[in-house]
């Protein structure tokens, strides 16, 4: 049965990427709503917004489902406080007015907001805690395509900017009989493709990440990266989804064999009090 579900998911993915899915048939869950904000659980393989309205995107889907929330003066109908990659699922905050958008955007720029992600990565991450701080820039080799990013260590890197991702191991196990690790990640900065690039740089590419696996990881039905918890830093808003990468939800394709840490309502506790953090292969005291 698990293989049947896997192939059905793969077929759905192909259909979505061909752009033949009717956006009316895609459901987007609103997990939080106030007069100023909605926070949605974005499905994977959906654009946040795009100019090609024939392809499924969040602005079009929400506009059809909640027309009373649409701002007709905006090109993409809503104030998107931040964005998620096409391949990434999970929590995304949308402001319902300009004042709220400025307030939330300011909290993110000042790093008051905390954004946590859950991912399955290839291989067993040997350290339980990692700080990844390689600056990230654009890959000059890819003039066209999906604007692939890379770290400053690569000669092709242009316009590098500081980037900082913290990682905590949750579980080690196997995905489709190959070693894999479930990790919780905290974005300190917010560069394009930051988590995907940093994980690839340390040799633990996210499962299903076609772009950063050198176009080799094609068997999973999606990229296993999910925006798990958002502490907005505005109006006391803290929202969390369920873990989408459990053994049950992945139909037994993922089997954890070692439980290291447990993500809960207070994810930040996992990133403090660990004594030492591994940074670029050097141990330094944790501040």
Automatic annotation (TrEMBL):
Domain Pseudouridine synthase RsuA/RluA-like: 36-200
UniProt keyword annotation of Nucleotide-binding present: no
Signal peptide feature range: 1-23
Entry-linked Gene3D superfamilies: Pseudouridine synthase (3.30.2350.10)
One of the Pfam families matching this protein, by short name: PseudoU_synth_2
Keyword terms: Signal
Regions that span the bilayer: none
Source organism superkingdom: Eukaryota
InterPro entries on file: PsdUridine_synth_cat_dom_sf, PsdUridine_synth_RsuA/RluA, RluA_PseudoU_synthase
BP-aspect Gene Ontology terms: enzyme-directed rRNA pseudouridine synthesis
SUPFAM superfamilies per the UniProt record, alphabetical: Pseudouridine synthase
Claim: Cell inner membrane is one of the keywords in the record: no
GO MF assignments: pseudouridine synthase activity; RNA binding
Family (UniProt): Belongs to the pseudouridine synthase RluA family.
Descriptive protein name: RNA pseudouridylate synthase domain-containing protein 1-like
């Amino acid at each position: 049965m698990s293989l049947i579900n896997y192939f059905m998911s793969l077929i759905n993915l192909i259909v979505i990427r061909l752009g033949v899915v009717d956006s009316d048939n895609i459901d987007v869950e609103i997990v939080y709503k106030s007069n100023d904000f909605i926070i949605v659980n974005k499905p994977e393989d959906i654009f946040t917004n795009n100019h090609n309205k024939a392809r499924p995107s969040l602005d079009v889907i929400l506009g059809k489902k909640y027309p009373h929330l649409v701002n007709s003066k905006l090109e993409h109908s809503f104030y998107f406080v931040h964005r998620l990659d096409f391949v990434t699922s999970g929590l995304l905050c949308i402001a319902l007015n300009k004042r709220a958008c400025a307030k939330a955007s300011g909290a993110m720029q000042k790093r008051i907001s905390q954004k946590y992600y859950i991912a399955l990565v290839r291989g067993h991450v040997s350290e339980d805690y990692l700080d990844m701080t390689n600056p990230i820039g654009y890959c000059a080799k890819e003039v066209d395509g999906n604007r692939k990013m890379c770290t400053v260590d690569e000669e092709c890197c242009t316009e590098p900017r500081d980037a900082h991702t913290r990682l905590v191991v949750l579980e080690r196990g196997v995905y489709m009989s190959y070693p894999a690790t479930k990790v919780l990640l905290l974005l300190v900065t917010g560069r394009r493709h930051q988590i995907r690039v940093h994980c690839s740089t340390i040799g633990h590419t996210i499962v299903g990440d076609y772009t950063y696996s050198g176009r080799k990881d094609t068997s999973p039905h999606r990229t296993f990266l999910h925006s798990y918890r958002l502490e907005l830093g505005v109006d006391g808003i803290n929202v969390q989804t369920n873990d989408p990468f459990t053994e049950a939800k992945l139909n037994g394709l993922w089997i954890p064999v070692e439980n290291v840490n447990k993500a809960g309502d207070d994810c930040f506790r996992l990133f403090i009090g660990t004594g030492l953090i591994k940074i670029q292969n050097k141990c330094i005291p944790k501040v």
